[in-house]
Amino acid sequence: MISHHKTSINPLYFRNGEETAPRFRMPDQGMLPENAYQMIHDELTLDGKPKLNLATFVTTSMESSADRLYAEAFNKNLIDKCEYQQTTSIEDRCLRMIADLWHSPRPLKTMGVSTTGSSEACMLGGLALKRRWQKERKKQGKPIDRPNIVFSSAVQIVWKKFANYWDVEPRYVNITPNRPCMDPEDVLAVIDENTIGVVSTFGVTYTGLYEPVETIAKALDELESSTGLDIPIHVDAASGGFIAPFLQPDLVWDFQLPRVKSINVSGHKYGLVYPGIGWIIWREAEDLPEDLIFHVSYLGGNIPTFALSFSRPSAQVLLQYYNFLRLGKAGYYEVQRASQSVAYFLKLTIQTIGPFEVLTDGSDIPVVTWRLKEGYTSNWNLYNLSDQLLTFGWQVPAYPLPPDMEDVTIMRVVVRNGFSMNLAHLFLKNLQQAVSFLDSLESPIPHDMSCDISIRH
Ligand SMILES: Cc1ncc(COP(=O)(O)O)c(C=O)c1O
């Protein structure tokens, strides 16, 4: 018998004395590389399949030449900027390209950095807002002990972390059934002289909707004219930053609005790169307070750095550049349009399946959400449906909406590159089968609260 404190090695592989390894303690001796590989490889077969993971926004496949490039670069540390000068130069080119895509007035001069993902980028954006506000207040001889930041109740968790970690009061603008996105009037109602900025989410994690950055900016312009309060906007475009420039090029949400001072995006979402890359760009160099930048001499040379992490893999940066070269604007358009077509197809079919009411249809970012029609059944709910879909391998999250709408549970599919029309057909077939099974139940499924896991990214 193997105790749960030990993991066993397949008899085909083990040598004497090596048939088990402790699970929670580092083994005293090592093992052959094949054995270590096989043990981990076998265990990972229990993970879900990335391709069927409809919960994540993050890229799960790239083409083989990208994989080759990844394998060539995984041993380079991005922070070794003097040692890997071409990698550094490529990172800089990516920054300029993104700044240009988002209409920075000076894409070749402005500041920006690559990050591990949008979470780090948002922290940096928030810090810059806080520092800018502190400087202004100090100049005016006013206290700086009570900063606040304004965002919607549907904000991604990183902003709640930001507020908590950096001692900034979060001020929520609650979304409601009638106002599913942050409303400019409600934004103005919570702003005061201690507000360091407004965060507008461009591609809300819960629903995929774009918040109305332009109208929020106009409302803040008017506030400035009437009160003198100059409140900057940070756009959290984790998903939308690589969708809108291609699918909604006429939408004004970026640095075309002078009030938008910084924008972040996840390169590993609709930037189409493997997990581990985000970007933040400031509108102009002056919008990033100079005293947040450190100059490091022990890397060789005098290297400016502004990031929470020091060492980081460089492969994802190279893959971002690969995608920019490989796809160009036309290619990004084609890829995102294909995802959006699949989203529309899902929406059209799902709304014809009896129990569902579609809430968002993928016309902003390609994300489709739906709820169970009120009063449809008391025998099952969307959590049960999520479990049923898992029996086919599909991972589709069900979760409650944020405060004021938390009694509404929704289900969400994120359509990403690789979720083809063919897979969508198969998914819809399995969805219908799952619904038929649940509809055939004669009494309610016993409810196990511990299973109400909500997967949000
Ligand atoms: C709006 C928004 N902001 C930030 C994040 C965090 O992004 P990352 O996973 O790249 O750190 C997400 C993730 O889904 C998001 O949707």
Give a summary of the structure in a few sentences.
The chain has helices at 33-44, 64-73, 85-101, 118-139, 157-165, 184-190, 213-227, 244-247, 315-350, 382-391, 421-439, and strands at 6-8, 20-22, 112-115, 148-152, 169-173, 195-201, 233-236, 260-266, 278-282, 294-296, 303-305, 356-361, 367-372, 398-400, 409-414. The protein is of the alpha/beta class and 457 residues long.
Q: If you had to describe this structure to a student in words, what would you say it looks like?
A:
With 457 residues, the chain is of the alpha/beta class. The chain folds into three domains: 6-47, no CATH class; 65-324, 3-Layer(aba) Sandwich (Aspartate Aminotransferase, domain 2), CATH 3.40.640.10; 337-451, Aspartate Aminotransferase, domain 1 (Alpha-Beta Complex). Helix content is 35%, strand content 15%. The chain contains eleven helices and 15 strands. Helix 2 runs antiparallel to helix 9 (315-350), helix 3 (85-101) packs parallel to helix 9 and helix 10 (382-391) crosses helix 11. The mean pLDDT is 93. Bound molecules: pyridoxal-5'-phosphate. Residues 57, 117-119, 122, 156, 158, 201, 203, 205, 236, 238-239, 266, 278, 457 line the site of pyridoxal-5'-phosphate (PLP). It comes from Neobacillus novalis. It catalyses: L-glutamate + H(+) = 4-aminobutanoate + CO2. Keywords: Decarboxylase, Lyase, Pyridoxal phosphate. Belongs to the group II decarboxylase family.
List the helices and strands and how they pair.
Blueprint: E1 6-8, E2 20-22, H1 33-44, H2 64-73, H3 85-101, E3 112-115, H4 118-139, E4 148-152, H5 157-165, E5 169-173, H6 184-190, E6 195-201, H7 213-227, E7 233-236, H8 244-247, E8 260-266, E9 278-282, E10 294-296, E11 303-305, H9 315-350, E12 356-361, E13 367-372, H10 382-391, E14 398-400, E15 409-414, H11 421-439
Parallel strand pairs: 4-5, 4-6, 6-7, 7-8
Antiparallel strand pairs: 1-2, 3-9, 8-9, 10-11, 12-13, 13-15, 14-15
Bound molecules: pyridoxal-5'-phosphate (PLP).
